[in-house]
User: Which sequence fits this backbone?
């Protein structure tokens, strides 16, 4: 059932959009996409805000959708906005073979939550391919139930940009106060 943008943002805030953290600055520009239309919407919204965008697959998507499908989605989404900076992260779950398949498809970032003993050889492969292996999914906003994914992305980017701005501290740091003069 589609939801409104406002309801979507409230739900993202309540669930902290994936990681259970109240750190909105880390969520900026990272969206979980489940289709090409959602990926294009995220890239379009990010391009309108002159912001980079990271497209994160659904949990374990490498197993059910495949590395080839996700690589094609990333490529086609980037082609829809030629000037946009797009990064894709494929969640491979605990399967090392899917990590290797992702690198063969040209993806540079994957999530691998499998056996730690496999991590060293996988990181060696990643280094040779110019890739990165993440142990946890980054904080992200899921577009699965957004009625208008592009509007949801725009609203999320605007809202998180405002939350990211630092507010001045009520307590000044010693450097801001200057050195105390000691009158001897």
Assistant:
């Amino acid at each position: 059932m589609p939801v409104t943008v406002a309801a979507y943002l409230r739900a993202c805030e309540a669930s902290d959009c994936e990681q259970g953290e109240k750190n909105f600055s880390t969520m900026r520009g990272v969206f979980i996409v489940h289709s090409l239309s959602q990926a294009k919407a995220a890239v379009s919204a990010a391009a309108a805000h002159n912001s980079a965008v990271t497209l994160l697959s659904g949990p374990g998507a490498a197993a059910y959708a495949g590395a080839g499908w996700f690589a094609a989605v990333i490529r086609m989404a980037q082609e829809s906005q030629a000037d946009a900076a797009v990064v894709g992260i494929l969640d491979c779950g605990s399967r090392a073979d899917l990590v290797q398949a992702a690198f063969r498809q040209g993806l540079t970032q994957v999530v691998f939550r499998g056996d730690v003993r496999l991590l060293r050889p996988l990181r060696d492969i990643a280094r040779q391919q110019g890739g990165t292996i993440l142990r946890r999914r980054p904080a992200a906003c899921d577009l699965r139930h957004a009625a208008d994914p592009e509007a949801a992305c725009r609203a999320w980017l605007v809202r998180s940009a405002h939350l990211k701005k630092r507010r001045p501290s009520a307590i000044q740091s010693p450097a801001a106060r200057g050195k105390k003069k000691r009158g001897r």
